[in-house]
TrEMBL record:
One of its GO terms (molecular function) is O-acyltransferase activity. GO terms for cellular component: plasma membrane. It comes from Aegilops tauschii subsp. strangulata (Goatgrass). Pfam families: WS_DGAT_C. One of its GO terms (biological process) is triglyceride biosynthetic process. This is O-acyltransferase WSD1 C-terminal domain-containing protein. Residues 15-116 form the O-acyltransferase WSD1 C-terminal domain. It comes from the Eukaryota.
Length: 116
């Protein structure tokens, strides 16, 4: 990072966190085959992961914040999470070896259930 900052090319690099999200439907139904729900969910998740939805939501939120301000962006973001039942994150694990209470930390998997 120091070499990049000294060379003056720091403006070409995006700093900070990038947030994009994918909305997945949560269907409640009775199935004859208990794994039918899992197969359907896997098909939907695979289709959504190969789409540009996460990139599109990230860029759309940037445009909303730039055009209408931080309050409008926060309002839309809060409305989206207020109508979400459960959310998961796929944070990248630490690059260095770290331990928490004597246990090695390999990855971080936060999740939230309920209204914010």
């Amino acid at each position: 990072y120091a070499n990049m900052i000294e060379s003056g090319r720091s403006n070409d690099v995006a700093w900070g966190n990038q947030l994009g999200y994918i909305l997945l439907p949560f269907h409640l139904a009775m199935h004859d085959d208990p794994l039918a729900y899992v197969r359907k969910a896997k098909m939907i998740v695979d289709r959504k992961k190969s789409s540009l939805e996460a990139i599109f939501t990230c860029k759309t939120s940037e445009v909303v914040v730039k055009m209408f301000g931080l309050k409008a962006g926060a309002f839309i973001f809060r409305r989206m999470f207020s109508n979400t039942t459960i959310s998961f994150s796929n944070l990248v694990g630490p690059t260095e070896k770290i331990e928490l209470c004597g246990h090695p930390v390999v990855f971080i998997a936060p999740s939230v259930y309920g209204v914010p």
